[in-house]
Amino acid sequence: MEYWGVKVSDIFDTMNDRFRPEGAKGVTAKFGYDITGEGKWKIIVSEGLLEVIKTDDISDCVAVMVCDGETFVGINIGKVDAANAFTSGKVKIEGDFGQFGKTAKMFKKYVPKKAAMSTRDYILDMFGTLVSRFQPQNAPQEAVIVYDIGGADGGVWTAYIKDGKCELKEERAEKFTVKLEVQDAKDWVDVMLGKVDAFSLLSAGKAAIVGETQLALKLGEIFKKYQDPMASGTPEQELIVLKKIISVDQKFSTGPVMGKFLNALKEKKILGNKCPKCGRIQLPAREVCAVCRVRVDEWVEVGPKGQVRYMEYVYYASPDPLTGETRETPYGMANILLDGCQGNDTFAHLIRRDQIDRIKGGKDDVSGTRVRPVWNEHRTGSIFDIKYFEIDE
Amino acid sequence: MQKRVAICAVAQIKNDPNLWYARFQNMLLECFEGIMSQTNVTFDMEKGIRTVITCSDDVWDARTISNNGMTDVVGAHFRGEEKMAQESLNGLGYAMASILSGHDDVVLFMGHMKESQPESRNMCTNLAFDPFYCRPLGMDFVNVNAMQARAYMEKAKITEEHLAKVVVRARKNASKNPFARENDPVSEEDVMKSPLLADPLRQLHYYPSTDWAFGMLLCSEERAKEFTDKPVWITGYASCMDSYFLGDKDLTSNFSLKNATERALKKAGIKDIKKDIQLFELCDHAAYQLPMWAEGIGLVNDGYGGRWVDDGGMDEFNVNVSGGMLNGNPLLLGGAARAIECFYQLRGEAGERQVKGAKRALAQSTYGAAGQHQAVVIFEV
């Protein structure tokens, strides 16, 4: 099957050409592809070398991508959004997702090859689109135009213009207003594509105008310019995408309030601060209560246990900003109402990965799953002094 | 004359080289509390602040839509809040326009910039340029300003001695300003011996990296008496944008500043700035700019900046008595610092550096490469 003119095998057959050893640095692994209805492939990456095999035996792969041919081709040629395909379940990764992510950097983008159009294809397309390119407002009341295009790829067509309408017939009209004679169809294609000037053809004797020359000179207005179906408007090589990492090192200050909150985590304490006016407990602690517009100075230790109020499963993870590493997915992010807090004053953190299926969010007076923090042994005053929360059982 | 907008109160923290112990929210909160305590303005939905305008720059904050993370410390929770990622004088113009349009009658205007946060301010200003052409060439505000400096210095016969004089005077004036960055005093010789950043710009010709925040309360003419006995009026404002690419303009022509000045003066009904305006706070990212912008606003004839410095023009016309940015205000906020100086001066609250009898003042700012975007505000009491 072809999707957007590309076969699944085209993607695999070009992998060796598209392989970027610098993107495969440090990767030694076998990856499998199970493309529904199309077959299975295995790629072996080792020490900057790549081997692509079509095989049913992909059981020894560290990760296998499973999807249908359309999705696979679509992702590779940029017609399908990879993130969407993944979240909607059209693509599944079996095995080590993190490892599979490394294949993203290994290959240059697949660029579909364009089949060239022959001169005959162009001639047929030009006359096939002639009527649709007709501009009645620029046309004379009545005219008969004969196109006599020579050579094996040519032919004879006559355009009949009358009362704002244009009709094209593959025939030679004996009575005409103007006749264009071109010896070689290839020359006519070049003129229509703007590669060759019509006047140079005329002066070289490769073309002639019989009848009303004035009308022949107006053809460019009577018919809209022919658009090359092989061109996308702008030549592709002029569309450059520059890949750059913008990076400016930063020193982020905590200020005294966030500083105290983070430092307390070292002591396995979660500190909120309480608005003197409305009694809200803010997590993380902040300088002021946004609602009451007053400074918040009273510190309160809360939790560390609590109940989950909101919970989500993240399948498409942002990289960890501190390490650049992709997180293992799916993971659970939760907003937890720590004991001592009220209302919506919840605390955001992660849920132990093997427990995410068992978490229920609370609502109104119904409690969500009770959880407790799992502390890191080495605490530095960071939000990851708590590794994650786990079910309190 | 058009309707006037009142500045009722200003608040600021002291300009500082490195507020490592504060996050920008802490800096703003002090200013917010300063405004609240001076004016007794409220957040009442009928009569209080419903519109907050802030001024900051995402690249410097290293946070997208960075204003969203500080709404609590500027009182903007459950109120309208809009950010001006431009020079703060343009933010002031925007606040003024909100009031003149009748959209709102009380506006809180706040701004912050923490230049000590990024490791390199030149890397930040490099990002102001396009990624294909100017950025790879290494353009930043310093080296691009140097190109303008060289061209202007030749035109206006500005010497190293002139620049040194401008810098030393800035430091001296700033020593009388309690909110100014505390710097070691420098001699003209120190300036002329300081390392070259981009010839002819030396380190001491360029403003030092600074952290600062401010707040201002603005309101309509009708409501000013509710918040202050001594409003300072904005009577004219205009801005003008010049070409983005340096290659498109004459770097010494001052075209956009002349345009902005002319329109601001017209709004304020001022014919002769030398007679009608007693105080000028001009942008001085770099020392050469002071005489150059003085030419731009019409204090001195084109090409006579050098002689103007020699003849004591800066003191004669009370230019940058605050000490200015050369002593230390952050990029983006220089305009607000100048507006605040005008406010103190016109209210007679400028202490040791008070200009006697000042009734009108002009503040100017620029942002972008080599004075691309210019803004001028006229104040009056």
Strand content of chain B: 15-25%
Q: Could you tell me the number of beta strands of chain A? A: 22
Helix content of chain A: 10-25%
Strand content of chain A: 25-35%
Helix percent band of chain B? 25-40%
What count of helical segments of chain B does DSSP give? Answer: 15
Please trace the helix and strand order of chain B, writing H or E for each element: EHEHEHEHHHHEEEHEHHEHHHHHEE
What is the gyration radius of chain B calculated from CA atoms? 19 Å
CATH architecture of the domain at 5-119 and 209-227 in chain B: 3-Layer(aba) Sandwich
Integer tally of domains of chain A: 3
Shape of chain B: globular
Give the chain pair forming the largest contact, with residue counts.
A-B, 22 and 28 residues
**Poorly predicted segments of chain A:** none
Distance between the termini of chain B: 15 Å
Biggest beta sheet summary of chain A:
5 strands, mixed
Walkthrough of the structure:
The complex is a heterodimer of chains A (393) and B (381). With 393 residues, chain A is α+β, with helices and mostly antiparallel strands. Helices cover 19% and strands 30% of the residues of chain A. Chain A has helices at residues 8-13, 15-18, 69-77, 82-87, 97-101, 119-128, 185-192, 198-203, 213-217, 219-222, 255-266; strands spanning 2-3, 6-7, 29-36, 39-46, 49-54, 63-68, 92-95, 142-149, 155-162, 165-169, 178-182, 207-211, 270-274, 281-282, 288-289, 294-295, 298-302, 306-314, 331-338, 347-351, 370-375, 386-391. In chain A, helix 6 packs across helix 7. Chain A is elongated, with a radius of gyration of 34 Å. With 381 residues, chain B is α/β, with parallel strands linked by helices. Helix content of chain B is 35%, strand content 19%. Chain B has 15 helices and eleven strands. In chain B, helix 3 packs across helix 15. The longest helix of chain B has 16 residues, at 24-39. Chain B is globular and about 55 Å long. At the A-B interface, helix 11 and strand 15 of A face helix 1 of B.
